[in-house]
Amino acid sequence: MQQNNPVFPDLKGKRILITGASSGIGAGMAKVLAEAGCRLVLHYHANPEGLSRTLDSIKDTGVEVETVQSDFSQLSSIKPFFEKAWAAFAGLDGLVNNAGVITKSLSLKDDEADAYDYTLAVNLQAPYRLSTLFAKYCIAAEQSGVIVNNSSIHGQATCEWFAAYGSSKAGLDALTKVHAVEWGQYGIRVNSLAPGVVPVERTFDVLYQPAMEKKWVGAIPVGRYGTVEDMGMATAYLLSDATSWMTGSVLTLDGGLIARGNYPKRD
Ligand SMILES: NC(=O)c1ccc[n+]([C@@H]2O[C@H](COP(=O)([O-])OP(=O)(O)OC[C@H]3O[C@@H](n4cnc5c(N)ncnc54)[C@H](OP(=O)(O)O)[C@@H]3O)[C@@H](O)[C@H]2O)c1
User: Fold this and answer.
1) Exposed, middle or buried by CB within 10 Å (0-12, 13-18, 19+), for 90?
2) Of 54, 89, 183, 200, which is most buried by a Cβ count within 10 Å?
3) Could you say which of 1.10.220.10, 3.90.170.10, 3.40.50.720, 2.60.40.1910 is the CATH number of the domain covering 9-244?
4) Cα of 24 to ligand 1 centre, how many Å?
5) Active site annotation includes 165
6) How many angstroms separate the alpha carbon of residue 200 from the centre of ligand 1?
7) What is the pLDDT of residues 136-156, one digit of tens each?
8) How far is the CA of 165 from the centre of ligand 1 (A)?
9) Residue 23 CA, closest ligand 1 atom number
10) How far are the Cα atoms of 56, 78, 104, 222, 230 from residue 89, in angstroms, in the given order?
11) pLDDT in tens, 73-132
């Protein structure tokens, strides 16, 4: 049975590629967009079981779904991957660059350079190449398109351990702006989503430890972690005609975490 998301009716039937849909935020995006009636091309890398769970979670919507595997650290695999994804429904209306690696490493450690290169390949070079291919194919097909780049609050304010991750996300936000400026004339909109702390399978064990939860949730003004559904709803908003005049923006969704800055808490 098809369930329609009443908030974004224009998304029904839209063909959307979501990268990194095998877990976490990508899986939440797939759920919300399937409920909105989108036709989905779901990408995964090394976790086919996770992708099966995503497929299970959306099967009741009855939407058409295709799946495509790719390792984005192998940059030469990106063009054939994109061509498969584009061909799945004879074109795409939207691209969600969500796949990413959350690398923590200290710059003075010996292995930092490799981690840095790997992170930049997956988090920035791959979205750059996918976005460029998407824009070229949309222009050739004389159609409009929408890109959502899943960035992070680390693109705006970051901390120790995140040289690679922070650089990749700040770069992604800059790419969002450049592509918005270059491609507006072709009817292609590009925006970033900047999530704060969103527990996912990878982080449940750590973030739901009572001491960690107290520390993190205590620092978030709205008093809770984000959910993958929060991120899915924001992605639907950015893909929909509700934001037809919005491009080159970074939409921060963090419960107010970085709005606080580093000010000590006042009583
Ligand atoms: N969770 C948060 O608090 C948070 C906050 C801000 C931003 N984000 C961003 O949200 C996005 C999703 O992260 P998540 O938290 O949902 O983590 P996640 O559950 O670990 O999801 C990461 C996704 O990226 C894919 N991926 C990893 N390495 C890849 C590679 N080499 N090639 C292609 N795909 C690869 C994974 O595929 P496989 O599992 O199939 O390998 C998976 O689908 C990331 O861009 C992350 O930076 C997350």
Assistant:
1) exposed
2) 54
3) 3.40.50.720
4) 7
5) yes
6) 9
7) 999 999 999 999 999 999 999
8) 12
9) 19
10) 21, 18, 37, 40, 27
11) 999 999 999 999 999 999 999 999 999 999 988 888 867 889 999 999 999 999 999 999
